[in-house]
Amino acid sequence: MYTLTEIATGKENVSFHQKLGERFSIIEREVSQQEFEKGYNALYSNNEIIIDERDINQNIYCLVVSEGGKSIHALKKQNFYYIVTENGTTFKNLTFK
Is the pLDDT of residue 3 over 70? Predict the structure, then answer.
């Protein structure tokens, strides 16, 4: 079982934890542009909010997809991201470099 931990930067460092399950995919914008755009569009297509076009070009650099594509997490450059195992050890650091 894997969990995506996000530490949001700002006035207060707040952490969020999303269960990924046993299988997940990492789609990096720079590595797979077409898959990234497909996932990005799936993530935001049903939202009624206005998406700032700069997000796809400047802020979001990676997507983590789990639950067979039902769950998509957008990773933003200003935050810190880690995939951790059940016992809390870091499996992968996904923080923007």
Answer: yes
